[in-house]
Amino acid sequence: MRLTRREAATLAFAALVAGPMRGHAATPGILVRSDGQPVNLDPHQIFDVPMMGFALNVYDGLYRYENNPPELKPWLAESHTVSEDGLDWTFKLRGGAKFHDGAPLTAEDVVFSFRRVLAIGKAPASAFLPILKPENVTAPDETTVRFRLEKAYGPFLAAIPIVAIVNAKLVQANVKGDDNGTAWLATADAGSGAYSVVAGSVTPSEKLDLERFAGHFMGWSDNPSPINKVAMRSVKETSTGVLGLMNGSIDMTDSYLPTDQVEQIQASKVARVEKHPSMRTFIIRMNNGRAPFNNLNLRKAFAHAFNYDGFINEILKGYADRDPTPLPNGIWGYPKGAQGYDYDLDKARDYLKKAQAEGFSLRTPVKIHIQSQLEQTNQAAQLFQSDLASLGVRLQIVADTWANISTNVAAADSSPDMWIHWVSTYFVDPENWIGQMYDSQFHGTWKASSFYKNPKVDELLRRARGLVKQEERAPLYEEATKLIMADCVDVWIYNTVELRGVSNRVGGYRFCPVGGGGEMRWLQLKA
Amino acid sequence: MAVDTLAVTGLKVSIQGDEGTARILDHIRLHLAPGRILGVVGESGCGKSTLIRAILGILPEGARVEAGEVMFEGENLLAFSEAELNRNVRGSRISFIPQDPYLALNPLFTIGQQLTETLRWHAPALRSNAQRRARLVELLRRVQLPDAEGALDRYPHQFSGGQRQRLLIAAALACSPRLVIADEPTTALDVTTQQQILVLLRELVTEFGLSMLFVTHDLGVVAELCDAVCVIYSGQTVESGPTAPLLKAPLHPYTRALLGCHPERSEGFAGIPGAVPSPLRAPPGCRFAPRCAHARPACSARAPHLLTPEPGRQVDCILYEQDTVPA
Amino acid sequence: MAGFVLRRALLVLPSLFGLLIVTFLLIRMVPADPAAALAGDNATPAQVQAIREQMGLDQPLPAQFLRYLGDVARLDFGNSSYSSRPVALDIRERLPATLELTFAALLIATVLGVPLGVIAAVHHNRWPDFLLRVLSVAGIAMAAFWLAIMLQMLFAMRLGWLPLRGQLSVGLTAPDGPTGSVLLDSLIAGRLDIFTDALRHLVLPAVTLSLGGLATITRFTRAGVLETLQKDFVGYGRAVGVPRRRLVWIYVLRNSVVATVTQIGLLFGGLIAGAVVVESIYDWPGIGSYTVQAILTADSKVMLAVTLLIGLIYAVVNILTDMVHALIDPRLRDEG
Fold this sequence. Notes:
The complex is a heterotrimer.
Chain A: H1 5-18, E1 30-33, H2 49-58, E2 63-66, E3 71-74, E4 77-82, E5 88-93, H3 107-120, E6 137-141, E7 144-148, H4 156-159, H5 168-173, H6 182-185, E8 195-197, E9 207-212, E10 229-233, H7 238-247, H8 262-266, E11 271-286, H9 296-305, H10 308-315, E12 320-322, H11 345-357, E13 366-371, H12 375-390, E14 395-400, H13 402-408, E15 418-423, H14 430-438, H15 455-465, H16 470-486, E16 491-503, E17 506-507, E18 524-525
Parallel strand pairs in A: 1-10, 13-14, 13-15
Antiparallel strand pairs in A: 2-3, 4-5, 5-7, 6-7, 8-9, 9-10, 11-15, 11-16, 12-16, 17-18
Chain B: E1 6-17, E2 20-32, E3 37-41, H1 48-56, E4 63-72, E5 75-76, H2 82-88, E6 94-97, H3 101-104, H4 111-122, H5 129-142, H6 148-151, H7 161-173, E7 179-183, H8 191-208, E8 211-216, H9 219-225, E9 228-233, E10 236-242, H10 243-248, H11 253-261, H12 297-301, E11 307-310, E12 313-315
Helix pairs in contact in B: 4-5, 5-7, 7-8
Chain C: H1 2-29, H2 34-39, H3 45-55, H4 61-73, H5 87-122, H6 127-141, H7 144-158, H8 182-188, H9 192-229, H10 232-239, H11 244-282, H12 287-296, H13 300-328, H14 330-335
Helix pairs in contact in C: 1-13, 5-6, 5-9, 5-11, 6-9, 7-9, 7-11, 8-9, 9-11, 11-12, 11-13, 12-13
């Protein structure tokens, strides 16, 4: 849970009255992470930030993202080839990988894992369901996996790391009825990753313990003193996490530290804040599919009325990078020298006059839905509200929840006028952002909740999706992005800087936008 | 002559309330000779309960004794500390029979638990609970309670009104008191039961060599039970004397009015014009004066003092002033 | 007594049934669709629909309800759509922690609240009474969140006496046991080290949770004692020389706690609700934080089961309250 302002104020006050601290609760030899665990440990059922923080350590994929900006590196696979038409993909496994139970990891396990993801059909499957049939994943021999796609799909390789490879025999032994072993794997470990789950240590959504897997296929030669034991503990209130970091009982918080906590932690001498630009974008959506935002001039008026610098510098204390486009900074396909819309109330006023001439009435309030438990969405809405008020526009803030909004976006009529969200990096490909946000075939999903429809953009995005070579796809995305920006579809605000509190006894920290720095293979714990 | 068991003189008690100071007892004087039963008679609100509380030293919060003496077997109880009263007076030398036996018993505890409580503090000779219970059973038999043994393990609501009063009478006798104060012990009972209880009390006083202060508003009961009477009106003793002559030839206009309106059972005082004055706004001098057919201006000016028109009798009324000297 | 309990227990069933209907309708009135969230960010509407069908959410409401009712009758509460585990299993694992916390809080509130209430009443309108009145208003008004952070700052951070969060120290594992409660199971297993550690972890959450109840119990005990002090039997007790202290602490108290017991019963439900906040702050692995997560993710099977559970707990506590009343008051026993 993110900190509300009341909570933050309380915390600041508490820090003031507390004075010097005597509590010293570090656990020797055990790294304690407070960034929580996925609600269910099956990497084929869940695909979100906590799952990545878990799966990157317990499971392996064919490829893996590393570093910042992320680079796609061969992992269980040592290489791959793709046919000219982009339909046939062949991955060659490097030999010698073993699961935690000692069984060798073979091409059969890879086939089983992809088929299982498709059969379960939940979050990790969404990128593959439209292009891959289960029977078209095959293993001609022990170290070769072949995929034949229904149609060419440019982001296929980028999405490959989503699928964690599970121990086929182990999962099959625990299948009940037609559940694909989902009930069992929800609290168990069938992985080959650098860490394994300690049996009996799992309380769902609360805690689990990990221990180092000495037999990991990558070996440990690049980290002579790795961490052997890890305790993952879900901390629900940010304040508790920050306090734990300061008294040593927690070594790593989640990577969404509220910006007003940064100074306090930096000054503490026991911990630091790791600040890394990520690829998570922050966006105010406008519902182009109906009045009032089916009016370009009104959208432009709004885009000029948001105080980008004020929000980033004052409210976020500078811990975010301005990004005027729908794509994250630093990704390929990003239009060079993109200007975007600036905070300029005079321009906003001009566009507003035009919008009024075209029928927009100041008497109708515009509704913006925030996610109540995410304080930053509220802060952005309030800032927006005050600037719009000076233009005579009434912005009404509606407190809402993710579950509710993501249901209402099914149709333009039920979807809110405006709402606020982040877009995280599920796979590093422009498809993850503009492809899924602005291609009209995705209307009805939350990512496409602008209900934007531009045949030219649709055409560009679909063409880019069907190509495999990055150098062919990049110009198409650049052009589409420019069109989308000219149509001022949404209010694009910033590119996240992830802030994670890390104890000073933790060394070797590395960050990658995929997984948010949750991978632990290279960490050390100082005595 | 033997020392009076109880002698109250010049007792003044006031209560500090929200509306001001009310002098509940203004001029109380009474004497109880050993082995006798003294009836204290007055209407409700005349201060009878406050008198009992003043004697036992359990006045409510805000109440204060302004003047007077409460002599018990030659000792002034008003000089006793709370601890001394608890240790040596209440429940031991002076015991108490309440008006409503049902309300006086705690509904959530057995009779045995409640009644042995007094013995625990005031009968040190009885070491164990079994001894205390045995003593109570013996007394319960004496007061003719059916199933005396079983009674101790029952709860108050499982007894009839008369049985409950017998329980409390037995409890009052348990620590061999010198004085029993009975606060209208028969008012809540039906006539037949009332009669039985009165007979029982009379017997017990003789049998146990007690003295008894019997507070009531019922002149009929007084006539039957008491050796002497003390009549109180609005916190003032107006008349006292041996029962028979007092009832036959009452001296004070108030006593006369009281007997006049209901010669046998003084249930209502409606026959007297006017109403009892509020102690907050009590008239000076004789408080009955505003209602008195014989009142004179001097009645309100004169401080109360008792006269002795004939031996053994006392009255506080200006009518008798010329006949005798102040007592 | 047995007949009384049986009669009351049978009366509970229709109430629980009504509770179930209302909850079911309420959950379905909120448009939040768990299938959309499960399908993931990139899912097409067709993929979402497939999951919806898999979960039976596409069927008409009465059919869904009947199916659920049938499952519940067989004590099958379904699977959480997020954890993929049987809800009953999740609850069985988490309920002991919440009960541990609530009972500890109730114990603190009662053990302190009753004597404080008596002291306030005995010193009616004098300084101890005023002080306790101010404190009890503060206790009710103070946000659990604020208090929790203050306690954490003082005892975990500044003094370092107690742990900041969690149920056990990192590195310790609760022994398996028949009760599921770490405290009890560690005692049964003879692991005093774990018991002590668990107890130390319990202190701050329990104190935080107890505060509102402490204030309520103090107030009700005070009011009850004040009222009982006016009763004739108190005057009689004093008149026959029973020491005031004994009169108050034994005889008056028993009469006064009737209202307090009712309050304690009501508080128990309130404490479970309060546990939601406390469990979140201290990361106590109970049903409070579980429920919050279920609500945020529209996990309807969990919400229904938890509602049913809380309804059941309320009912049981109500029956227990009545039984305690009958134990205290012999008149109720005789009425049968």
